[in-house]
Amino acid sequence: MKSLKPIKRSALRIYLGKKYYRLKRYIKWYTNRKKYANKKESMPLPYIISSHKTPLLRELKGVDMWLQHNKIINLKIASNKLNKVIIKPGETFSYWRLIGNPTKRKGYVEGMELFFGTVTVAVGGGLCQLSNLIYWITLHSPLTVSERYRHSYDVFPDSNRSQPFGSGATCAYNYLDLQIKNETDKNYQLIIYLTDTDLVGEWRSDMPATRIYQVYEKDHWITQEFWGGYIRHNTIHRKVFNIENELITDEFITENCAIMMYDPMLTD
User: Fold this and answer.
1) E strand or H helix that includes residue 267
2) What is the pTM of this model?
3) Please, are residues 117 and 39 in contact by the beta-carbon 8 Å criterion?
4) How many helices (DSSP H) and strands (DSSP E) are in the chain?
5) pLDDT tens track for 201-246
6) Are the CB atoms for 135 and 145 separated by under 8 Å?
7) Helix, strand and coil percent figures for the chain, each rounded to 5
8) Distance in Å from the first CA to the final CA of the chain
């Protein structure tokens, strides 16, 4: 496996790298033959296929709460770009193609961002909460995740973690995209909104669900690397049941590995 040892790069190298990978993505968007979802329906489709919510505010050690409140502003703007979009059969949902570049001109503000394992401040920071949520509800639907990037760093211990480690999707405009393809014969609609306390996501359809999904972690282990860091590993799988709760299949989803940003020998 390729070493995950962090590589120190100059500010110029990082700047030019972003420009290069963004250009590659723009070329892909406009030259490939994918049909991207871009239409919305004002009325929600009738059947909820999967749903989940995550808290908007969390007290994180060493992180100022104003960054959390700014994150909510960013989530509201981005969610409005995605809310009620329809993915027709054969179409592909692209997270960044729909949201666009999160800039100050569009109303985005500084929020928390993880950059090479360090908590930093950046305009549009905090949008990974949205991509994480969409990825999670997609794993509980018949839609196909065609592009997803794992988080390279495991930032916080498992206290109060409700989902398996590695069940999110990191994002960075526009080269780290989340893409989801509708390979079914039904329409699907993404519903995203904020309450006073939570970010809420739903996949809806014009037909009721015929499958039930159970996502779980398997083969969890931690390794100490030659350069001194610790790497956390696991695999994500899902069981698929029919409406009678009979197991149809048990699928491998992905393998994760991430640099641990905390002591793996933490005590209770």
Assistant:
1) none
2) 0.93
3) no
4) 4, 15
5) 999 999 999 999 999 998 898 999 888 889 999 999 999 999 999 9
6) yes
7) 20, 35, 40
8) 32
**Structural contact between residues 233 and 222, judged by C-beta atoms closer than 8 angstroms:** yes
**Residues near 248 by beta carbon (within 8 Å), at least 6 away in sequence:** 211, 240, 241, 242
- Quote the percentage of the chain above a pLDDT of 70: 94
How many other C-beta atoms are found inside a 10 Å radius of the C-beta of residue 11? 7
Residues 167-185: tens digit of each pLDDT: 999 999 999 999 999 999 9
CA separation for the pair 206, 83 (Å, rounded): 16
pLDDT at residue 1 tops 60: no
Rounded to whole angstroms, how far apart are CA atoms 189 and 87? 6
Residue 45: which residues within 8 A CB-CB, separation 6 or more?
86, 187, 188, 189, 204, 205, 206
Torsion sign (Cα): 184, 88, 23, 74: negative
Q: Cis peptide before 174, with omega less than 30 degrees from 0? A: yes
Q: Closest Cα to residue 11, out of 117, 115, 150, 112?
A: 115
Q: Which helix (H) or strand (E) holds 238?
A: strand 230-242
Residues 6+ apart with CB under 8 A from 210: 242, 243
SS3 of residue 56 by DSSP:
coil
Distance CA 252, CA 1 (A): 19
